[in-house]
Structures are given as C-alpha cells and as structure tokens.
C-alpha cells in the first residue's frame, strides 16, 4: 500500500502540492503565532522586570514573624531581605543610602554588577556607579574606602569589591529609599528590614496584606509596574493562551478548505478503486498512508519555516524597538496546537473515507447515470416577464437565512476592520509622536515641600557638565505631595465676601466632587488642588495681570514680595473634560451655549482690592491682601490660572521656609554632549542629597517606553486584523458553496426558458450591489456608534457643539476614520466579488446542460 500511494502521487502532483502547502500553512500559522507572541510577551515581561524589579510585593519595616508567614505561603518562590541602615558619609559629605542586600533581594531587584563582586562579609562594600563617579579620587575595585553610617557615625574602612549598576529609577517602594552603598553581612548593624518576595498567586497577595494589617506592623507594597493588574482585552486574550483556540479554529477552516479543494479528484480515484474490487480495509489503508505522508512532509517543513520566520520576526522587533528579545518556546501551547491540528486532519480524512465507502458505486459520466429527469417541462398557461424585484422577493423566501448570515458576518467584519484600523492608526501616531519627541530632560517633583531643592542645589546642578538649562518652580499641590494630605485633599481660599455667592458655591461643589472630597454646601471659600508660585522670571504672566486687571491696580513689587495676590473670578461653565464635571473658565475653552455660564456677582458684598483672603493648606495657613481682581471673560491668561495667583515668596512663607525652595525642577540636557554620562551624573548628585533620587524621573526613558507601548499595541491590532480578514475570506468562500451550487441549477433553468447570459449577469450584479449597499449602510451605522463612544474617551466632549469643536481641532481623527472606512469597504467588496459575484458570472457563462447537471 505504501508503494501504491507513492506511485499515485506522481500522477496527482497538483493535488499533492496543494495538500502539502495548505497543511503547512495550517501548521505554520499556529507555530508562528505561538512562538512569536509568547516570545514577544515574555520579552516585554523580562523588560519590565529589568526596569521595575521582579519582586511581586514588598513589606517595609517587616518583622521576623512576617518573613516566616510569607515563606510558608505555598506559591512563594523566593524572599529577599534588605536592611536599610540610613545615610552614609564619606570625607564629611553625605554619600548615599547604605544597606545590606542579600542574594535573593539582588536577584529580585535585578541588581547587576558593572565589575567586581557583591560584598560577602562585614569588611567589604559595593557602591553604585553613579556614586563612584562623584568621588573626588578615582576609586577602583580592590581599593579601600572610608564610610560612616550617619553624619556623626563611626568611620570604618571597607574594601570596594564591586561597582553596581544603579537600581532602576522607575521604581521605588513608597517612602523607602533604596540603598546605593551595599555593605556585607554584619549582625552588629541594625536597621529597618524590607522584604522583597515573588508570589504570583493573587489570592495569597490579599492574605499577606490582611496578615500585615492585622499585626499593625509594616507596610505592604505591590509592584504594579512589573505585574500590572489592569490589562487590555487583547493582552489578556494573547497572554492567557485563549488565542490557541482561535488559531485552532482557523486551522480547522483551512483543513476543511483543503478537503473541499481535493474532494472531487480523491472521491473519483477511490470510487474507481472500489469498482476494481478494493474493500473497506484497503481503501482505509490507502487514505491513512496518504494522510501520513502529507502530514509528515508538512510537519517537517512547517517546523523549519516556523523557526526561521519566528527568528526573523523577533529580530525585526529587536531592531525596530531597540529592546532585548528572547525566544520563548511554549511547549504546552505548541503541543496542544500540533495535536489538535493533527487529530482534526486525520478525522477529516477518516470522515471522507466513510462517505466514500457508504456511497453507491456508479459511473461519474452524467450522460450514463440515468439520474437526470429528462421529462418535458410543464407548459405555462400564461408567460409573464419576471421583474428584478419579483425574482429578488422569491429568492428571499428560499435564501433568507443565507442572506441574513452573509449580511451579519459582513457587518461584523467591516466594523471590526474599521475599529482595528482606527486603533492601529492611533497607535502608529502615538509611536511616531513619542519616537520623534524624545526629550533629554530630567524632572524632579518633590513629594513634600520639605524635599524641595534650595537655590544652592539648583546652582550645583547647573554646574554639571552637559546641563543646558534648569527650570524651577515653587508649588504645593495635593496630588504628588501625598504624605501630608491624608486628611485634607484641598487648599481653601476663604473670605467673608465669598459667603452666599452662587459663583463660589458652584465652583466649590464641583471642584470638591471632582477631587473626591465631601461637598460643603455652605461655605465662604473656594477649593483648589494646588498653588503654583510666580516669580520675576514669568514676565509674560506678570504683564497679563497688569493688562487684564479689572478692579484694582496690579503692583508687581507687592505681588513678588508675597504681600498681595491676584484673584481670577472670570466666568466659567461646568464641563466634563474627561475627569468628571468641573468648573472651566470660558477664557481657556470654547463657550458652550447649551450650558449655563456662572459670573461673579457684583454687589455690595463683592470682594474688592484691599480685602484680605486666607489661604489654608495642609502645610500651613496665611492671610494675603487682594491686589487686583480679574473678571473679564476675554482675559488672555495662562491655562493653569485658578482662582488665586500668588508669588513663590508667598508659598515659601505659607509653608514656613525662610529660604526659597523649588518643588518642581526641570533639567534640560545638552544633546550635543554625552547625554548618558550627564544623566548618570545628575542621578548621582541626587543620590547624595537628603531628598534622594526617588522623585527624579528621566523624561527620555518614559517617552521611549510610551513609544514601545504604542508599537506593541499597533502590532496586536495588526495581528487581529490579519486574522479577521483571513477568517472572513474562508468563511465566505465555504459559506457560498452550497448557494452557488443551487444557483447553478437555477441559472440553467432560467437559460432553458430563454434568458440570455447578459441579462442574468446584470441581475446578479444588481443583487450584489443591493446587498453591498445594505451591508455598507448598516456597517456605517455600527461604526458611527462605536466612533462616538470611542471619541468620548479620546476627545472628552460633553455636548454636540464640543464634539464638533474637538473634531475641528483634531482633523487626524476624521482622517483615520475615513481611511479605515475606505479600507473596510474595499475588503468587503473584494471578498464579495471574489467569493460570490465572479463565481456567479462564471456559472452564467457555462452551457445549460453543464449547469443543470452541476453537482451530479
């Protein structure tokens, strides 16, 4: 039988080639998808671990009981310990934060050595590279270093065993400063214990957190950057293995398509063998040997091509995204897929054998079959010409399920295509935006006023080689400065003149509601989220106050001295800009005529220049005199303006600083110099400060991360789009086969009654056009609804007027929609033409006898 099958392949080269190619495609699609996606997502995961650490959670100020409890958890993989010893000093200057980091904590924190080794005893130390660069003397591995724990601590000599690559600046543990001076194990040193553990069981996370809360000791921190809780639907679909079922479905459709392509020739040859006397066992052996040969060749070819193409795709990702890529072979998914495809292929062939064996042996010559009914057609009493719509109505009775199915599937595919294309275009635009807008800048945002930078520290930063400029600002806010605002999430601007004012009450109500604060219905104050100081450097804003002061005279000197303020009481509307309803000045946003405009009441109780207002914040309270009031709705002010404008001097006085401090500092690097080296020097400088470097962020690194995320998102939508189009093509092809077979007989009858080919082709063309118009119109309706919902999240409109305004200011959104609609229509029309109209046109061109005998 084996030799017979091999000989039969010689006469069926086209069929053999089609079978091998189709089955190879079925295997290859799954292998490529699994290898690429698993490697892609594991590489992203590895990149997150390298950036944010591989620890799942941390416990600050942990006790021994907590450590034992975590270790006893069934899903805990490893637990590391960091002992924080406080600040270290070298040659009378603060050097950095010292600590003891055990081996497991080094692994979980993804600590890496540039050279040397980690310390192993109490006479050895390893230092971060950014600290070594700031030492006055060149220190090498093996040299002696003098380190004191605390400003007045005992100075001890340590052997430098290694230089450590700095901890990732993108992660920190709440208020805990990570050590950058690593000392060896020393039982005599006492400090705060921080536990790092890796446990991917979400149920056990809650148990650990509950246990810590019950003890009342320690603080639990979850590493949400390395293990994000919120994932997109696509990420969940791909990462949880659900996509395997989807590609198995595609493989099944491909196999069915293959069986349909080779059905007639294989059925003919096996029927001939049965006519020559072959029994069921022999026919079964032949089919199984054929199946085995084709499967083996396809399997081997797909493995080779899968490995090559997966490697090429991953290398392209590595080159484009500049990220390390690791080949991940998910044996479980690959095995499941290969077994499923193999079983499906063999089952389909066995089912084919059963249909052949159970059918009657007869000749395939239609003229000798005797099955055609050659009786004379009945004579019609009255011949009527059937109009196009009459024929369409009659066809609807017989084919309504086919029509409805085709329309629904086409609408779903068109809507999915348009949505995926829009999201892909948005991801592409984001990638281009972030990839081109990489700004070599560091931003320092203090988490409390006390950690703001002094003027002296700003000057030291400006002296770092490679720093182009430094922008500084004094501010307080209830967002990033969260340590001191646990009980108060607002800054109040109060005055007796604000009592019983609708303008003030409505402003306060929606501001408090937007910020999650309990609403005070009766009060004599405004509620704001932050105060941003103005200095003599802000010439444009100072000039605008002089120009737009409606009441009073703006005294620049009094303002900068912190003795006077400017009140912004311009008209506002309650608008939703994506964060809930909140007051928005009409100066900054276009006026919406459908919404009420709130104007400050001018009466005998109004506030006037010279009155005193009180500013109350979580960091202190202070009164200030009103210098000028701005109420003009056309005032050209900065978009950050809100109720009250004060100087940097006033904020420093409010929080109790004698010397100015700057809570927000932006450091611009000179791109013509070595920005990497400059960045390390900046990071090293902040590590030596008491404030530490936890609140220092690298803007360029974040922008590159945004660009990578956008690229990942676009790749996902492109993959889904390709899969949807392929599936749509196969479904439409197979779904129309029975319809085309019946239409062939119908065309033969119509031709026998005298209808010419051209008229039939015109009728089918009109039918397809009508069906296409229905599908396109309904699809546009579905896409329009989705577009409005999506634009609500993207453009934050709260009325039709604002929606049109947002579209006018974002023409790329309309452009993306138009392109996606055109492509979706072209895909639908193309598939419909290839799978429906062209076959019908070919059928109408055939002879009458051939159409009437179709399928016999």
Model description:
This protein is 52% helix and 17% strand. With 856 residues, it is of the alpha+beta class. The chain folds into five domains: 1-53 and 228-364, no CATH class; 57-225, no CATH class; 388-437 and 700-856, no CATH class; 447-474 and 660-694, Alpha-Beta Plaits, CATH 3.30.70; 488-656, no CATH class. The strands form six sheets. Strands 15, 16, 18, 19, 22, 23 and 24 form a seven-stranded mixed sheet that branches. The chain has a six-stranded mixed beta barrel with strand order 2-3-8-5-7-6. Helix 2 (13-52) packs antiparallel against helix 10, helix 8 packs parallel to helix 19 and helix 21 (757-795) runs antiparallel to helix 23. The radius of gyration is 37 Å and the shape is flat. Mean pLDDT is 79; it is low at 363-372.
Number of domains: 5
Largest β sheet strand count, sense and barrel closure: 7 strands, mixed
Beta-strand content: 15-25%
Number of H/I helices: 24
By secondary-structure content and strand pairing, the structural class works out as alpha+beta
Sum up the overall morphology in one term: flat
Helix coverage percent: 40-55%
Radius of gyration: 37 Å
Give the oligomeric state: single chain
The parts where pLDDT drops under 50 for at least 5 residues are 363-372
Compute the average pLDDT. Answer: 79
Q: How many strand elements?
A: 27
How many angstroms does the end-to-end distance come to?
30 Å
């Amino acid at each position: 039988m084996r030799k017979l099958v091999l000989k039969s392949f010689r006469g069926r080269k086209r069929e053999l080639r089609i079978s091998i190619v189709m089955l190879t495609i079925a295997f290859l699609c799954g292998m490529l998808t699994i290898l690429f996606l698993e490697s892609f997502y594991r590489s992203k995961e590895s990149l997150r671990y390298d950036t944010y650490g591989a620890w799942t959670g941390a416990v600050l100020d942990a006790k021994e009981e907590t450590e034992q409890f975590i270790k006893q958890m069934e899903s805990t993989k490893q637990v590391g310990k960091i002992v924080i010893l406080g600040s270290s000093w070298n040659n009378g200057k603060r050097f950095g934060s010292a600590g003891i980091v055990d081996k497991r904590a080094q692994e979980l924190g993804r600590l890496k050595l540039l050279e040397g080794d980690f310390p192993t005893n109490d006479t050895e130390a390893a230092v971060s590279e950014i600290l070594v660069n700031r030492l006055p003397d060149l220190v090498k591995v093996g040299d002696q270093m003098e380190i004191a724990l605390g400003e007045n601590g005992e100075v001890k000599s340590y052997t430098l065993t290694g230089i450590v690559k700095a901890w990732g600046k993108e992660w920190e543990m709440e208020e805990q400063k990570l050590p950058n001076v690593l000392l060896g194990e020393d039982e005599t040193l006492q400090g705060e214990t921080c536990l790092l553990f890796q446990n991917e069981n979400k149920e056990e996370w809650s148990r650990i957190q509950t246990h810590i809360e019950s003890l009342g000791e320690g603080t639990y921190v979850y590493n949400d950057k390395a293990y994000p809780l919120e994932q997109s639907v696509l990420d969940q679909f791909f990462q949880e293995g659900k996509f395997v079922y989807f590609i198995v479905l595609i493989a099944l459709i491909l196999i069915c398509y293959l069986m349909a392509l080779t059905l007639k020739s294989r059925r003919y040859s096996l029927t001939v063998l049965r006519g020559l006397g072959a029994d069921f066992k022999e026919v079964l052996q032949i089919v199984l040997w054929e199946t085995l040969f084709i499967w083996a060749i396809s399997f081997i070819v797909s493995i080779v091509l899968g490995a090559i193409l997966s490697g090429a795709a991953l290398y392209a990702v590595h080159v484009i995204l500049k990220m390390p890529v690791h080949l991940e072979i998910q044996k479980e998914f690959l095995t499941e897929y290969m077994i499923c495809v193999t079983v499906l292929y063999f089952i389909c062939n066995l089912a084919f054998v059963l249909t052949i064996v159970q059918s009657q042996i007869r000749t395939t010559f239609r003229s000798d079959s005797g099955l055609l009914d050659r009786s004379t057609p009945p004579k019609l009493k009255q011949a009527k010409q059937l109009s196009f719509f009459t024929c369409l109505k009659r066809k609807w009775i017989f084919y309504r399920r086919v029509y409805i199915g085709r329309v629904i599937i086409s609408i779903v595919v068109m809507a999915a295509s348009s949505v995926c294309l829009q999201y892909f275009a948005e991801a592409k635009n984001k990638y281009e935006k972030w990839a081109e807008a990489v700004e070599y800048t560091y931003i320092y945002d203090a988490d409390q006023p006390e950690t703001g930078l002094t003027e002296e520290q700003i000057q030291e930063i400006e002296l770092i080689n490679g720093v182009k400029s430094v922008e500084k600002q004094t501010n307080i806010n209830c967002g990033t400065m969260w340590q001191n605002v646990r009980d108060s999430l607002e800054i109040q601007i109060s005055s007796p003149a604000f009592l019983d004012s609708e303008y003030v009450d409505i402003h306060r109500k929606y501001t408090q509601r937007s910020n999650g604060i309990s609403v005070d219905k009766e009060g004599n104050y405004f509620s704001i989220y932050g105060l941003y100081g103005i200095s003599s450097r802000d010439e444009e804003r100072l000039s605008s106050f002089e120009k737009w002061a409606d009441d009073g005279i703006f005294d620049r000197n009094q303002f900068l001295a912190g003795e006077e303020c400017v009140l912004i009481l311009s008209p506002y509307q309650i608008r939703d800009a994506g964060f809930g309803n909140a007051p928005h000045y009409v100066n900054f946003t276009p006026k919406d005529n459908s919404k009420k405009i709130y104007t400050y009441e001018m009466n005998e109780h109004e506030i006037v220049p010279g009155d005193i207002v009180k500013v109350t914040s979580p960091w202190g309270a202070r009164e200030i005199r009103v210098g000028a009031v701005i109420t003009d709705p056309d005032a050209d002010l900065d978009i950050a303006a809100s109720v009250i404008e004060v100087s940097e001097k006033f904020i420093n006085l409010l929080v109790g600083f004698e010397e100015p401090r700057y809570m927000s500092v932006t450091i611009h690097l000179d791109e013509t110099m070595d920005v990497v080296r400059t960045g390390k020097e900046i990071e090293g400088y902040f590590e030596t400060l008491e404030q530490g470097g936890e609140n220092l962020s690298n803007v360029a690194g974040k922008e590159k991360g945004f660009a990578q995320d956008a690229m990942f998102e676009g790749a996902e939508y492109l993959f889904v789009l390709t899969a949807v189009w392929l599936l749509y093509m196969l479904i439409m092809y197979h779904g129309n086969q029975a319809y085309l077979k019946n239409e062939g007989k119908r065309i033969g009858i119509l031709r026998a009654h005298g209808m010419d080919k051209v008229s039939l082709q015109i009728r089918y063309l009109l039918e397809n056009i009508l069906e296409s118009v229905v599908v396109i119109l309904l699809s546009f309706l579905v896409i329009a609804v989705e577009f409005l919902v999506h634009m609500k999240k993207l453009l934050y409109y709260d009325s039709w007027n604002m929606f049109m305004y947002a579209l006018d200011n974002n023409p790329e959104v309309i452009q993306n929609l138009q392109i996606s609609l055109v492509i979706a229509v072209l895909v639908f029309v193309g598939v419909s033409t290839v799978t429906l109209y062209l076959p019908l046109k070919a059928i109408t061109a055939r002879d009458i006898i051939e159409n009437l005998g179709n399928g016999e």
